[in-house]
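Hi L., both proteins are below.
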Amino acid sequence: EVQLQASGGGLVQPGGSLRLSCAASGFTFGTYDMNWVRQAPGKEPEWVAGIKYGYGNTYYADYVKGRLTISRDNAKNTVYLQMNSLRSEDTAVYYCVAMPYWGQGTLVTVSS
């Protein structure tokens, strides 16, 4: 059974930081591109960042460049999202995705 278990979300003040983790199992993690996708309340899901398998090239949506960093540890079957300088508009449920597989998501709330 494929599982993508995201964790690390919570309430943080504007300007703060969080580190999300996603533990994967049930598939060959090291051969999949991994992505983070978020869905804000009342909005459609939007892609945030991706990391390729192999060389680990990374890609970001323009609105998070310089603030969010995606990384992976293939030995631990885990992908991370370091989130700095958080803004209220970053409030969303964050999902890790290994197409076609989606995890359950973790809620990030940025509020004072």
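That was the first. Here is the second:
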Amino acid sequence: VQLAESGGGLVQPGGSLTLSCAASGFVFSSRTINWARQAPGKEPEWIGRINTVGSYVSYLPSVKGRFTISRDNTKNKCYLQLNDLKPEDTGMYFCELFDGTRGQGTQVTVSS
């Protein structure tokens, strides 16, 4: 079972990024996918999740309306669209399964 995040980078406040999570080693379409982030020196923070078919998505209130989670089960990928980024969104972003499996993360830095 593997997850691999990509798409992070350095972006100015107000900017956008699209993160990808590529899955392998399991039946992707049968698993809910969570996204989380961890800022330096802070505890991990759950951002949101998407159900198996993408019909239900929930978000952390502070990112709702700015972040969008989607998935493409034909490609075994999940996506996190980040819009209107703020400096406090800086951190390592992970996709995760409920059993704790996560990828290596992708770094998002929001700075002018």
